[in-house]
Amino acid sequence: MNKKRITVICVVIGLAAVCSGSILFPVLQVHEAERAGALDWELSGGQVNGKNFVDISFRCLDVRRNVTEVSCLINNDGTVSLSVATRGLPHFASHEEEPYRIRIPDLSEGYQADTLPEIKKIVLESENDSLVLWEDEVTVDRLTAQMFAVVTNDKATLDCRIDALLTCFGVHGWGAQQMNTDGSNPPGFGSRLTETDAGHKLTVSINGDVVLYEKSDALKELQKYSCILIALIDDLDEVTWNYSFGEIEDLLHFGASDADAFLGSEDSGIDLKEYGKTASGLQRLMDQIDFAPDVFIV
């Protein structure tokens, strides 16, 4: 075999290897604990013989990735830790529409129903996220889970957690975004937390005229946000909102006593702070104030 033929064969083999590698390369992109922001999920629960079970389905928001496995660890206190593994699809491969479904507890995996602890909480774990999906027979929606994770993140300062909550609310989009003289966009809001003998007070200033809502609707939303903030932030007992309509400045003071009136007789006697102690409690508050979870997901 002459050198020219050997060279041609080597080139063909090299091209075949490159093509095969490029097609199969996404398969090597494995995430053992996929972040929650890349996943969509649905939950439904029930009871068998007086014990809780939860059915969960997962799928990737990126259609070029599939869920390949869901690891499940049931702890003695009834907390279930989940981690979702995903893998990229080979180029030109068709996407599988079926979600990955699991049941907790899955008795087919060898668990004995009579020795299992009662399932009380289900948490989705990843490298950067820890979201409560289900707790005390309450399904926690994505936004509520994100907000509870934000406020319980001990690695962030209190001011950062408050600003993250305000971002979850969507306050940054209330005012018209007019550019600064240097071409940059101003922040949509500013917050300041002060400490008094009675507790913490929070002041939030919305920059520019409110354009997202009519005034009556805006006031109702601010009352909802105030309930959530007071419930979640330790020692916070009052929120003041500075805003303007038609270049006329106004403000709203909202304290814990105002929350009792806002929530109504159904929650009479319940301490607002109790709602903020668990993700399921926060979900009950979100449902009580009719907070729209799909509006401000970031």
Give an overview in words.
28% of the residues lie in helices and 31% in strands. With 298 residues, it is an alpha+beta fold. Strands 1, 4, 5, 7, 8 and 9 form a six-stranded mixed beta sheet that branches. It is globular. The N and C termini lie far apart (63 Å). Residues 17-21 and 294-298 have low confidence and may be disordered.
Task: Report the sheet with the most strands, covering strand number, pairing sense and barrel closure.
Answer: 6 strands, mixed
Give the integer mean of the pLDDT values: 82
* Overall outline: globular
Number of strands: 13
Low-confidence stretches: 17-21, 294-298
Alpha-beta content class? alpha+beta
Distance between the termini: 63 Å
Q: What's the number of helices?
A: 7
Roughly what percent helix? 25-40%
Rg, alpha carbons: 25 Å
Write the layout of secondary structure elements.
Elements: H1 3-24, E1 30-31, E2 39-48, E3 51-60, E4 65-74, E5 79-88, E6 100-104, E7 121-125, E8 130-135, E9 138-139, H2 142-151, H3 158-169, E10 189-195, E11 200-206, H4 215-232, E12 236-245, E13 248-255, H5 256-263, H6 272-275, H7 279-288
Parallel strand pairs: 5-7, 11-12
Antiparallel strand pairs: 1-5, 2-3, 3-6, 4-5, 7-8, 8-9, 10-11, 12-13
Helix pairs in contact: 2-3
List keywords for this structure.
298 residues; alpha+beta; six-stranded mixed beta sheet; four-stranded mixed beta sheet; globular; disordered C terminus
